[in-house]
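Ligand-bound model needed. thymidine-5'-diphosphate.
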Amino acid sequence: MKILVTGGAGFIGGNFVLNMVPRYPEDEYVVLDALTYAGNLETLAGVMEAPNFRFVKGRIQDRKLVDELFAREHFDVVINFAAESHVDRSVEDPGIFLDTNIMGVQVLMDACRKYGIKRFHQVSTDEVYGDLPLDRPDLLFHEDTPLKASSPYSASKASADLLVNAYHRTFGLPATISRCSNNYGPYHHPEKLIPLMISRALANESLPVYGEGRNVRDWLYVTDHCNAIDLIVRKGKDGEVYNIGGHNEYSNLEVVKIILKELDRPESLIHFVKDRPGHDLRYAMDPTKIETELGWKPEYTFATGIRKTIEWYLENRPWYDHILNGDYRKYYAEMYKERK
Ligand code: NAD
Ligand code: TYD
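Prediction:
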């Protein structure tokens, strides 16, 4: 199979190709990535020279480039990881989220229709369901939970999901959607909670926890998500949505305290800052469908995954130092100046 992986220089797409390129030497993987602030070719160093891997720089909403790429390559499968992915940035500047996360998906699916593919897979998120109350631990998101996005980011992802469903129903596009809970692991941009807290704790810097730190996220180690996507692409049914999650619910404060304990740093580094506008309270996934229909099972608990993640950051300081030394520092000063 020839597989197009869009957004493959980012966190999850990068982990996906690093795992799948050596696992399936008979398949060809082509990454299309715009290399925005979140894309990093250093992440792909381990596969750059592989005979079944190629990198193409470009934006998914660039219709001419996408058309030429599809005409040349004859892809069997397209997996769309490309997105603007950070909620806080979507609060500052929603426009680019609509452009990439909605229009880009339309351009990709138009190319899939024109040139024919066996499967278009949209990588979506639990955030499309909105949030759950903190005092109802019995409630979970199911595949048929209504979409009710809260942030410009999640609204753009929900819009894309609706569009994928429409292209499947109206045009018969062979498509699947996966909605996963919060990921963590290697190569995660240090603007997101877990890598931000690890890198700042290591530098003995204050740890900015929004509000009271009571918001709950359902954490999944990134390779468990990648394996689920691979399974859906190979065995999933056209037109279906699959929820992915591992029942690992923790409040943000609990996560930060676990990281501090693992790194042997004091809790006095925690600093409560102004809350995120519209901050979702709790996400929690029901992954029964992918477990029973496709036999997926996560390999990591939060305890084993967070330890592995922290080890990775300790052993790979140059990877995130390169990010911290550049643009990201300016972003941090700008984003957190109002939160003091
Ligand atoms: P990321 O921000 O780390 O990576 C996004 C990648 O897409 C980057 O390499 C970036 O350069 C690229 N990109 C951005 N705009 C592009 C464009 N217009 N054209 C081509 N490439 C472009 O994001 P991530 O955390 O790896 O998330 C990947 C996907 O998974 C996203 O669709 C996101 O919505 C979804 N998701 C993320 C999580 C999570 O916890 N991170 C959870 C569930 C779903
Ligand atoms: P994030 O990693 O941005 O993922 P998402 O908003 O998509 O779930 O944030 C995870 C949680 O951590 C979220 O509830 C917001 C919170 N958070 C902080 O408390 N402080 C921070 O500096 C960041 C980036 C996030």
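The longest strand covers residues 119-125.
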